[in-house]
Amino acid sequence: MPWKIRTSLCALAATAVVGCETLPAPPPDVLLVQEGERIFFEETFSGNGRTCGTCHRVEDNFGLSPAFIASLGPDDALFVSDTNPDLANNFENPRLIREFAMILENQDGFDDLANNFNMRGVPHTLALRTSIDSAAGPQTGWSGDGSPGDGSLRSFAVGAVIQHYPKTTNRVAGVDFRLPTDAELDALEAFQLSLGRQEELALPLPLKGIVATRGQEIFIDRTQGKCNACHFNAGANGDPDIFGPTAGNLNFNTGVEDLPDQPADLSGELVPPDDGLGSPGTGEFNTTVLVEAADTGPFFHNNSVETIEGAVAFYNGDAFNNSPAGALLVGATGSGINLDATQVVAVAAFLRVINSLENIRESAGLLDSAYPDYRLTEAQRTNLIRRAGFEIEDAHQVLTGAGLHPIAAAHLEEAQALVERAQGSSGQKAKRLVDDAAAELERARVRMVD
What we know:
The structure is a single chain. The strands form two sheets. A two-stranded antiparallel ribbon has the order 1-2. The protein has a two-stranded antiparallel sheet with strand order 3-4. It has helices spanning 9-13, 28-42, 52-55, 66-69, 80-83, 94-100, 153-164, 182-193, 210-220, 240-243, 263-266, 308-314, 318-321, 324-333, 341-369, 378-400, 406-423, 427-448, and strands at residues 103-105, 118-120, 251-252, 285-286. It has 450 residues and is an all-alpha fold. Helix 12 packs across helix 15, helix 15 packs antiparallel against helix 18 and helix 17 (406-423) packs antiparallel against helix 18 (427-448).
């Protein structure tokens, strides 16, 4: 369920609601999600000014891209190493943040800050409920060891505070930051699990686009794209028929680190090889969800590929086919992946369409929640409508970026215009605009899928 939908009116705006005391108390999980949302976006844990939302931006699909970073002012907390002399060295690389949205991570400890680090992109936090469980335990972060201890989302928050929130690189708890309480960790976990999809797709979908339909066939086919083996139903889990019913999210060495001409390496900045899971590492990284992929680039743990087409094409190349994961695939299916250019485009079209459909689903839910049976303040409604606007914009961009479903894209463009007008309106006028935008979303959806 999208963020904000699960919030309670009484908890959000008790003073603004007539007769609020007559409404039933919200379920405990709703209150917990609401508190987790507040902590996610507002709590600095007595550190350097950063919050979870500093890197996981609601406007940027709860991730972080170079294009969004370019819109930020110099005083944004993301750039704290520019303004805090105690963080000027060995905390971030300002150039790699701004050009490639890469954040410094000390995955293997803080003993040698000048040399022992990784530069990684920011993974989005959507559809976590469907993507982090595995037979080996939770898989968080890019390499499945994104949190200290048990690898859980609760531990992930602890690791994030220690890594990204300190006032100095001494990282002394109680001095450079405070650690989250158990109650705060529970709330953060509940909020993050509430974001995005709460269940998997069931492929194949009855798609209408010719190219995307062909892409779906290639995606599923165990003799062609073979994508569904590791990204079952375009998610992050292994195909239970191949890896077993409890496999869940898996780690693989796919050879991404062996790609030539990686953008960060071309910069001349120090970017040590990233050995992935463990210390020393195995070179393995965990599988990511694909439903949300097309609008959450750049791709892979090192932001090495900019477009979804390039990400699909990676699995055609030597880096993957010569990797341990490539060898595993050959052993399981008898051959590697060898798609022609039109097939790469078709698979990418499929991923773009299912991403757009997810954006439509989420934006429709946000618009619907803006006018429930009880009253919200105008500010709260506007925020929900604004959030829907981000999703509609993404839905439009992932289609037009590849010339897909032009009529659906036109409906999305009209929906976006209506949402923008609704943000500047109030009362029944705003509600009519929201209803009209929802109708445009449905017209777009039925153009893409039965």
